[in-house]
Design goal:
Helix content: 40-55%
CATH class of the largest domain: Alpha Beta
Order of helices and strands: EEEHEHEHHHHH
Strand order of the largest sheet: 3-2-1-4-5
Number of domains: 2
Largest sheet: 5 strands, mixed
Distance between the termini: 52 Å
Structural class: alpha/beta
Shape: elongated
CATH topology of the largest domain: Nucleotidyltransferase, domain 5
């Protein structure tokens, strides 16, 4: 059997073809129940597009199926289709699996996924820290304070602690400072 899986956030549209290319089953399955579906077709070949949530789905299905993750940028047959629906996309993926013409996407190992998650998380925290530093500088500028302040330096912390701004800017400054303080330093 050949299986095409059009993945969405909470569900997947699935098409199953037999050896001759005839549709055996078309079904919409909650992603939480994909393992139940896959158990019916143990050993079959399947394809799904690389999406933001494909890791978990790939890992779940790989326990039962021979899964290929398709590179969405190279799926011309699907992206150029006039009739773009979940059912059509799933059938096209199943046909491409049957023909052996799925443009494969790299599936990183758990170790690489973990490293990427840490790097992306850290990058976001640093971006947030910069955003709050800029908010502090903007707030100071809005009140005519032109002194160069580095909020994480000893001098900057002392300057901000002694600064007195009228309400509600004092509360904003405190909020920005608290958010800024919790972010990692470079």
């Amino acid at each position: 059997m050949f299986i095409g899986i059009d993945v969405h956030k909470r569900y997947s549209q699935i098409a199953v073809l037999d050896e001759s290319g005839e549709i055996v089953e078309e079904v919409r399955v909650e992603n939480a129940n994909l393992d139940d579906f896959a158990q019916q077709y143990v050993g079959s070949k399947a394809a799904l597009e690389a999406t933001s949530n494909y890791y978990h789905i790939h890992d779940t299905l790989s326990e039962y199926l021979d899964v290929t993750v398709a590179n969405p940028g190279e799926l011309k047959l699907i992206s150029d289709s006039d009739k773009k629906t979940d059912r059509v996309d799933a059938k096209q993926l199943a046909r491409m699996v049957r023909l052996g013409s799925i443009p494969e996407s790299y599936v990183p190992t758990d170790e690489v996924r973990q490293a990427r998650a840490l790097v992306r998380g850290r990058q976001k925290l640093v971006e947030n820290r910069t955003e709050y530093a800029n908010k502090i500088h903007g707030l100071l500028s809005d009140h005519g304070i032109t002194q160069e302040v580095k909020p994480l330096s000893v001098e900057g912390r002392e300057f901000l602690a002694e600064l007195s701004l009228p309400a509600p800017w004092d509360t904003l400054l405190e909020s920005y400072w608290n958010s800024f303080r919790r972010s990692p330093s470079r």
